[in-house]
């Protein structure tokens, strides 16, 4: 059994931000991530011929001075850049992909991927954690998974269960599509909340991308919820038809069309607090679902947890 002072479940922005702050303060947190890589919804999918698609979060903004300084530091290192998408808003993207932000945060951290935690239990020394056939112990446990997964993990009998369950998240079905170079590019990005395709972006227009005419289209929450369990090739077909209609492309010119299912993509109702903790100060729950469905909110939640952990000692 592996023992650590602090274990963090989830290598998304909140978990990595928390781990980075703790590591900078001299701690050695262990981060457990069920996916193959870090980043959560700030993901970049690689395809043939050098194509990449930001199929999760599309960009991020910086509203607070603290987050702005953080992004400027990454920008100076080449890991982020401003994306001029025609919106007249200062939108940042990771370079060469959105997951560059997560990789920056995760540098030199102890992150173990491919480990889905299926059980946690409080014990005399802190917490016991099981992930498949692996077992871990820690004094303090930080969970930054999406609210429904966090609620399931802590269980219905936990005093924080009802509060966590109050956070409402909506799904999103995403299309990654590439077309022949001669096909239209009528805009760089388009947000239409009332359309089935609530977001469309010419993903290859972002700084640092090498391929051309690569698009990402994301369906709205209603359409996504209705088809959430549909086979992904069928989802890709239906979304491709809609995308071709919106951009005026010939569907026969699409040589790549893949769909991705995000079960917990958008925060509809946050809990309104940066994080939750138990009375023993050895369990902390956080993520963007605490504040708002934005990368900056996840970053703020992770930092707030780290500050509290450091205060408690």
Walkthrough of the structure:
The chain has helices at 13-24, 65-76, 100-106, 147-154, 161-165, 221-226, 232-247, 295-312; strands at residues 2-9, 30-32, 45-46, 52-53, 80-83, 91-94, 110-112, 119-123, 126-131, 134-143, 168-179, 189-191, 197-202, 214-219, 254-269, 275-277, 283-286. It has 313 residues and is an alpha+beta fold. Strand 9 (126-131) and strand 10 (134-143) form a beta hairpin. The mean pLDDT is 96. The protein has 2 domains: 2-42 and 99-167 and 270-312, FAD/NAD(P)-binding domain (3-Layer(bba) Sandwich); 171-267, Polyamine Oxidase, Chain A, domain 2. 27% of the residues lie in helices and 31% in strands. Helix 1 (13-24) packs parallel to helix 3 (100-106) and helix 1 runs parallel beside helix 8. The two termini are 24 Å apart.
Name the descriptors.
313 residues; alpha+beta; FAD/NAD(P)-binding domain; Polyamine Oxidase, Chain A, domain 2; 2 domains; 8-stranded mixed beta sheet; 27% helix; 31% strand
Structural class: alpha+beta
Taking all residues together, what is the mean pLDDT? 96
CATH superfamily heading of the largest domain: FAD/NAD(P)-binding domain
Helical segment count: 8
In short:
It contains 8 helices and 17 strands. With 313 residues, the chain is α+β, with helices and mostly antiparallel strands.
């Amino acid at each position: 059994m592996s023992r650590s002072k602090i274990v963090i479940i989830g290598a998304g922005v909140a978990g990595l931000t928390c781990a980075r702050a703790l590591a900078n303060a001299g701690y050695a947190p262990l981060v457990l991530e069920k996916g193959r890589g870090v980043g959560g919804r700030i993901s970049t999918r690689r395809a043939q011929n050098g194509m990449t698609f930001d199929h999760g979060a599309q960009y991020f903004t910086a509203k607070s001075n603290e987050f702005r300084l953080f992004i400027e530091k990454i920008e100076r290192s080449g890991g982020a850049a401003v994306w001029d998408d025609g919106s007249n808003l200062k939108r940042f993207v990771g370079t060469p992909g959105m997951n560059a932000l997560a990789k920056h945060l995760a540098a030199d951290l102890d992150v173990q991927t491919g480990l889905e935690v299926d059980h946690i239990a409080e014990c005399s020394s802190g917490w016991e954690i099981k992930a498949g056939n692996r077992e871990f112990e820690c004094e303090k446990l930080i969970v930054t998974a999406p609210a429904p997964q966090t609620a399931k993990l802590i269980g219905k009998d936990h005093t924080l269960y009802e509060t966590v369950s109050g956070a409402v998240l909506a799904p999103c079905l995403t299309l990654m599509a590439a077309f022949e170079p001669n096909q239209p590019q009528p805009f760089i990005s388009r947000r239409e909340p009332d359309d089935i395709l609530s977001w469309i972006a010419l993903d290859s227009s972002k700084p640092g991308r090498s391929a051309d005419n690569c698009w990402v289209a994301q369906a709205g929450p209603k359409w996504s919820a209705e088809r959430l369990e549909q086979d992904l090739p069928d989802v890709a077909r239906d979304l491709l038809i809609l995308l071709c209609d919106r951009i005026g492309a010939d569907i026969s010119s699409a040589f790549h069309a893949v769909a991705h299912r995000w079960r917990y993509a958008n925060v509809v109702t946050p809990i309104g607090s940066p994080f939750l903790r138990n009375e023993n100060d050895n369990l902390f729950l956080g993520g963007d679902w605490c504040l708002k469905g934005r990368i900056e909110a996840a970053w703020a939640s992770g930092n707030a947890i780290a500050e509290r952990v450091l205060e408690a000692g």
